[in-house]
Design goal:
The protein is an all-alpha fold. It has helices at 2-73, 78-109, 116-132. Helices cover 90% and strands 0% of the residues. Helix 1 packs antiparallel against helix 2 (78-109) and helix 1 (2-73) runs antiparallel to helix 3 (116-132). The chain is rod-shaped, with a radius of gyration of 31 Å. It starts with a helix and ends with a helix. The mean pLDDT is 84.
């Protein structure tokens, strides 16, 4: 009878461990989903603002460049002004645009999308389970 109680207790403990492990996995999956969703939402929102800001900035830059080219053309010999003024303006603006593009790429690619909090939590849970497994 004592052995039967021990077996039932051991069976009950294993069943409890199995059930609680499954609950823990479901909870961790829900946490990962929520964390990824939050990060994706913030990333998407930031991307929308970047695109809108970039479009408005681009329109303004085009207008300023057109005015700059027209102004520069007044200082160049008339026979070369039509092609030399845009070439000079482009040579000045091109490196600036490349630098801005590189900066934006660095920011976007350095934004971590993996659920770091969930990964830490799962690692901790695995360690605890390993300690309690026979």
């Amino acid at each position: 009878n004592g052995i039967s109680n021990q077996r039932r207790s051991l069976t009950g403990l294993v069943a409890d461990l199995w059930r609680e492990s499954a609950d823990l996995i479901r909870a961790e999956a829900a946490l990962a989903k929520a964390e990824i969703s939050d990060k994706a939402s913030r990333f998407g929102s930031g991307l929308v603002w970047l695109v809108l800001g970039g479009a408005v900035l681009f329109a303004g830059l085009v207008l300023v460049l057109v005015a700059g080219v027209a102004g520069l053309a007044h200082f160049l010999p008339e026979e070369h002004a039509a092609w030399l003024a845009p070439l000079i303006a482009g040579a000045v603006v091109l490196p600036l645009g490349l630098a801005l593009l590189a900066r934006g790429t660095k920011i976007v690619t350095s934004t971590p999308l993996k659920p770091a909090q969930t990964l830490r939590s799962v690692r901790k849970d695995v360690e605890v389970l390993k300690e309690h497994m026979p």
